[in-house]
Write a structure and sequence with these properties.
With about 325 residues, the protein is of the alpha/beta class. It has 11 helices and 15 strands. Helix 1 runs parallel beside helix 2 and helix 9 crosses helix 11.
Length: about 325
């Protein structure tokens, strides 16, 4: 199949492209290479992907295009020219805290850009759109583990609100135009080649440098950390499972629409998380305890029963294993 992967120079996009190429698909990757974080890391992923293609004899199977999903004419031309069988939409303006500082970046990428993706899929009759949502949509829900059946009407950050909006927009297009769409609520993704704005990345950097790390909410938080390989396995498996039109107890609409959680189903305390980094680096952390940051949530915990039932896959990489792999990569990179 010919597959579009947006955000292909990003963390999840990079590994997703590799997995799809290994399966024999033809992949077109796009990314606007913005400077939200160090551009050298994005270029490093692109170079690594180029080397991978050369080593595996897949040079003709992958094409990268620098493009902004918010550029409506460019996106329309891309869809018209390529005629994709599937779209895996991972491009987005990420980060909860950054949304407090630069809200317009989230509107441009996560809302305008997403409409351009939906329109491209509609106009060219793409067989299945798989897109990244986020565990942030659950906000401060009291019920755990977080289920896709739960209400998610109370976002506590603009980032979360845009991701919830993506799910609503996708449902509308699925209902109106019979476009199969599947949203994936990712839970705290980590691993080699990850984003520098994530805690595990900055903690590792500062611990190795002997600098203090900022520990928010005095360390009284838990996260459902999910290793990158598990995320990508979930993405690829879901891509092949096209949702069928269905209604529910909440609506009479029959839309080919589905939402899955992809999380480790095992919340980790911040203490265990820091201990794993200390063990992997061989150095003790100097801690600067701080109150909870605006937009943060105290706990995330994924109910993945639907993912297991529909794909036969359950993420289960232990945090110590994943952090060891990340630190090994970090030291070499």
């Amino acid at each position: 199949m010919k597959i579009l992967v947006t955000g292909s120079a990003g963390f999840i996009g990079f590994f997703t492209v590799q997995a799809l190429l290994k399966q024999g698909h033809e992949v077109v990757g796009i990314d606007n290479l913005n400077d939200y974080y160090d551009i050298s890391l994005k270029n490093g992923r692109l170079n690594a992907l180029k080397e991978f293609c050369e080593q595996q004899g897949l040079v003709n199977s992958y094409r990268f295009i620098e493009m902004d999903i918010a550029d409506r004419p460019a996106m329309q031309a891309l869809f018209d020219e390529q005629k994709f069988d599937r779209v895996i939409h991972l491009a987005a303006q990420a980060g909860v805290r950054y949304s407090l500082q630069n809200p317009h970046a989230y509107v441009d990428s996560n809302l305008v850009g997403f409409v351009n993706i939906l329109e491209g899929c509609r106009q060219t009759k793409v067989g299945h759109l798989v897109y990244a949502s986020s565990s942030s949509v659950y906000g401060m829900n009291a019920k755990i583990p977080f289920s896709t059946e739960d209400r998610v009407d109370f976002p506590i950050s603009l980032y979360a609100a845009t991701k919830k909006s993506n799910e609503l927009m996708a449902h509308a297009y699925s209902h109106l135009y019979d476009i199969p769409t599947t949203g994936l609520r990712f839970f705290t993704v980590y691993g080699p080649w990850g984003r520098p704005d994530m805690a595990y990345f900055s903690f590792t950097k500062k611990i190795l440098a002997g600098e203090a790390i900022d520990v928010f909410n005095n360390g009284q938080m838990e996260r459902d950390f999910t290793y990158i390989d598990d995320i990508v396995e979930g993405v690829v498996r879901v891509m092949d499972r096209i949702p069928q039109p269905q209604s529910s107890e909440f609506t009479m609409a029959h839309a080919p629409y589905k939402i899955y959680n992809i999380g480790n189903n095992q919340p980790i305390t911040l203490e265990r998380f820091i201990n794993a980094i200390e063990s992997a680096t061989g150095k003790k952390a100097i801690r600067n305890n701080l109150p909870m940051q605006p937009g943060d949530v105290p706990r995330t915990f994924a109910d993945v029963d639907d993912l297991i039932a529909d794909t036969g896959f359950k993420p289960e990489t232990e945090i110590e294993v994943g952090i060891d792999r990340f630190v090994d990569w970090y030291k070499s990179f």
